[in-house]
Backbone:
């Protein structure tokens, strides 16, 4: 086992951790979703994922359409969009490090216990455990705790479930409002963009072969906005040789501003990004550390 498929419920914060031998294809991911999620919780209303090759394929897109679920992807170089999964991965790594530090090859054996512990732990966002939110009660940790659980009537059980759900809804709203208030302290409203507008693109997260990252241009472009995906996400018209996904968060761009008082400035030189250009010849090579460096003459 080399890979973990992490699935988390946005409402209850319950998770499913699925060990895999390798990265699954789009069809295998859809089958895993049916086997481990749909048969237990029903068809989801929305599926949010990162931009892995499994989730940008046509197979996965058609699978989401067939389910009738809204299909969304994280914006480029903005992991906060899928922050719940990122936070769960941090907790998962910490737990596995404590359990398997002596024998790391047995990590997959402890994965069910990590999942059980997470779903039993009280979430700071809801004030309840994922088990309480989704099931209406806290299951016992060990068999000797069964004496503490009393079997309620059906009416009492449904009433308690509704109470937990109402508490969870209110707690999620309060947590979201608190997080938004703290995050907005240093945020400024993004400019209003429209299709056809030209913008600069930040080179902070773009792959670059520049000799000095500090002295390379901070922005590249300008590029044209093709469409407005959401109020915080835009799609740019990138060069055909670019290997970067064209969807970006508004924090990664800024509008091109021109003034009538001075002529428009020349655009900065493009970042030295290697996009699969052809090599005309290799001049020489030298050993550097554990590898080699080559003096390359590119075509053109």
Residues:
């Amino acid at each position: 086992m080399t890979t973990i498929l992490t699935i988390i419920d946005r409402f209850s914060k319950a998770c499913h951790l699925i060990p895999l031998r390798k990265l699954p294809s789009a069809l295998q991911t859809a089958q895993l979703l049916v086997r481990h999620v749909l048969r237990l919780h029903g068809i989801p209303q929305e599926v949010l994922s990162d931009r892995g090759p499994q989730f940008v394929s046509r197979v996965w897109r058609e699978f989401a359409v067939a389910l009738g679920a809204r299909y969304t992807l994280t914006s480029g170089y903005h992991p906060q969009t899928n922050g719940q999964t990122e936070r769960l991965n941090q907790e998962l790594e910490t737990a596995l490090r404590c359990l398997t530090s002596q024998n790391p090859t047995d990590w997959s054996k402890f994965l069910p216990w990590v999942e059980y512990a997470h779903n039993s732990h009280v979430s700071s966002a809801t004030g309840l455990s994922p088990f309480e939110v989704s099931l209406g009660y806290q299951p016992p940790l060990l068999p000797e705790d069964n004496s503490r659980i009393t079997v309620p009537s059906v009416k009492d059980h449904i009433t308690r479930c509704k109470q937990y759900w109402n508490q969870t809804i209110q707690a999620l709203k309060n947590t979201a409002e608190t997080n938004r208030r703290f995050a907005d302290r240093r945020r400024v409203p993004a400019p209003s963009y429209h299709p056809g507008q030209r913008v600069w693109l930040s080179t902070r997260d773009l792959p670059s072969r520049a000799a000095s990252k500090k002295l390379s241009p901070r922005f590249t472009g300008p590029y044209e906005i093709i469409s407005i995906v959401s109020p915080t996400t835009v799609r740019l018209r990138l060069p055909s040789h670019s290997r970067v996904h064209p969807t970006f968060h508004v924090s990664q761009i800024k509008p091109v501003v021109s003034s009538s008082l001075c002529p428009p400035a020349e655009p900065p030189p493009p970042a030295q990004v290697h996009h699969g250009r052809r090599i005309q010849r290799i001049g020489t090579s030298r050993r550097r550390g554990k590898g080699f460096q080559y003096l390359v003459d590119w075509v053109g």
Summary: The two ends are 46 Å apart (CA to CA). The first strand starts at residue 3 and ends at 8.
